[in-house]
# Entry
Amino acid sequence: MCGAPAFPDREGVIEVKQLTKRYGRARAVDDLSFTVQPGHVTGFLGPNGAGKSTTMRLILGLDTPTSGEALVNGRRYATLGRPLHEVGALLDANALHPTRSAYNHLLWMARSNGIDPVRVAEVLEQVGLAGVARKKAGGFSLGMKQRLGIAAALLGDPGVLLFDEPVNGLDPDGVRWIRDLMRSLAAEGRTVLLSSHLMSEMALTADRIVIVGRGRLIVETSVKDLTERYDSLESAYLALTAGSVEYGAAR
Amino acid sequence: MNVLAAEWLKIRSIRSNHLILAISLGAILLAVAVAMSAIAMYDSAPASMRAGARIAELEEVVLIVPQLAMGIMGVLAITSEYATGLIRTSFALVPGRRPVLAAKSVVVGGLGLVVGPVVVFATYAVSWWMLESRYPVAGFADRLPTLVTSSLTVAVYALLGLGLGAVLRSAAGAIAILVGLVYVIPMIVGNLPEPWSERLGSVMLGALPREITGEDLTSSVYGALLSPFAAAVALVLYAAVPLGSGLLLIRGRDV
# Structure
């Protein structure tokens, strides 16, 4: 795949095509297709176990699909040379070494993708962690870890961003900050795929919505469309996922 | 080179690795302590017994410390990432994955190549300075080949640990096997009936440095059936087999 042609028209687009992932007999993701466009915050919703995190791992090439494919910028993620420049992701805020400092946590990531260390100080400033950069990340609150994970996603100034439950553990100030950050990233023309269970927050943050249940697509539409057909995003979500609440389907 | 720089930073930015290095180098102090007690024993022994006084090579006594310590550093260099979930970040940043493990090998193997010779040669110096007036200590030129091969085993342990960690993805399992290879299996092999004790004893990791140099085994629990070349190949395989398995497995696994 080296030297694959550039796809100017697919720049910033996440394409999930007939994606299926089975773990044993359980189908975590089942023939799922949707497209995420740049310039919007796209909310990624679904009950626990609906396959949201699995889909994100499949997009990032961490899991191998059973069938189907996921493309970013028209290419499979695994073919990207220095992916941080194209895709930033926060999957799990707790994925850090507890005794490594926040600064070093970001610095090794910058090094691995040939990013100027100056960016580390910049993103730490941007997420409000500059004052604790030399502290061990293991001592951070969940909210601070979320900020560190967001800093990591922003490190390479990528056009495509994936955030899995970034709002968990944040204080009201932090929730507001994330909302403004997500919207400004989208306003800059970036692609933002954001999963969350906080419907009222999602209604304020997202323009587009993808809802999945039991690994399958339930609806792919705009927030406006849903709030017009149902009286709120929460009502829409609860009505649409009523038959899909199921635990233990995915890992 | 980017991945190598990243992995080097990962290793040196974790305090427990500093501790592991300190413990490894602490083997030199252990050698000093052993030498002091040997001196005390010699000096309190009746003159008639002093002439026949013998002592095991200090390097061989203390070498297990840096071997195990650096082996554990190798294990943790990858299993700690699986335990925290950081491995997903590492693999998302380097989708080819193999460069991550290769860079870790260079870093922990390189540290082993520094730590091993430092401990072995410093310990030999300790035995020369402290013990030579009382005990027979082989001259440097005679010992040099085995000092070199023994010191290399530290890097082999580091890479063996890393390879086991990459294959098993769990610190507990990898460290258990590592300790088993150093302690438990040689003990079992030593108690097997001949000829199996000697045969299997010849392929134990601890037997290889002297088999490579052909140095006389004075008081070894190991066998010495391998030719120098075969022993050198075996030494390389101890690191190459687990690491190679790790490189093969790392691509296709979901994380």
In short: The longest strand of chain A covers residues 26-36. The radius of gyration of chain A is 18 Å.
